[in-house]
């Protein structure tokens, strides 16, 4: 008679364990969990939108005309808020209601007469801006023929130069 | 004698059963991922397809380019390879209004056409395209095609500018009046010099290109009537072309179906009613001619050609003095044609 020594009593246990592991694996692998790594999609959409708006602001409406972006950059800090508001108005356009929870801030990088590069805020700071927002950054080069008389820092080089307009764009 | 120990003995039934069970388990496990593939989340994929479709629509002029795809009528729809709305490859985000109108024309494209010529997916995606164009006075004109939006979909929004065709408004000028009231006939010519119009120095977004956009001429004839009570007789409108690069260049009349009214080719409006190009009827008020690119493409013109549109006025009786003084050549060029400024708009693509 065969006695029960050496038999694997826990066969059911092993099988059940395997089945449980397999179930857990299948459930986890078929559920998509939104992780910070996936935020590149909304970021890409926002970045595309922002760069489109800057590009269109930099496109004159008539041949030989001056683009709205250059006009607003030449006003410096005096027209910085107008630049931000027009940029946001372009971003908020939709076929339904406007996409109202977008915020932006505009910065300008320029070369000083000493030759170094400096950055100044062109628009006033958003009151709710903490610095921890998930922002995207869109930029556009603007050619200035001479230093604007108002709204620009005094150490800006007088010669013609390209300045960099940077816009931080985020969803509040 | 000690009985034989049975320690370490495993039954054969158990071994066979366990082996079969393990084989079955391995087979099932290897099949499971395939069984569940259809349930995997693919929202990210929709976003990618929407992005790609948006790029095709706003950064590409479509194919064919010359003659442009939007010129094809319903019977030649198969010749359209790709739907793109940009004025040219060099001007992304600047859309041509004639292409936009064709894309959203009700009943022209079937859902299958949008899938094959703009979305290019292996899956029969559902879609919704909308374009909101900013008009003067803060209003918006909305163009839309596709199905209503479900709760979840892939999405992209592109900000664009829209280029609209120019219009030549011929007002009163001494340059276009004939001094001799008894002149046998009046010929008023609208001249399009392609070499000048298609000057590469001018950006495509600000160019007058009769090969892709309609040519519109509006003549205010009341200003040119000799007597305000006597209407002038417009005998015909004819098209002539000249190639200055040829030896002995001269204008030749272009063979065309002048007697057939076809709004796909041209629209001539006289006394606020449509007419063919051989009206031979008295007119007053405004004469409006809109020549479509579909007609211009039949004229076999190149970038050096000169196209004349001649309006011939002559009264029926031979000895009767002419009732209009309009005469001469009006240049359809950047100085005379009112090119409307670009309009801003937003194109949205949703795919699911």
From TrEMBL, chain A:
Q: Which domain of life is it from?
A: Archaea
- The keyword Transmembrane helix is assigned to this record: yes
Where are its TM segments located? 6-28
- What are the UniProt keywords, alphabetically? Membrane, Transmembrane, Transmembrane helix
| A Pfam family matched in the record | DUF7288
Tell me the protein's name.
Uncharacterized protein
UniProt source species: Methanoculleus caldifontis
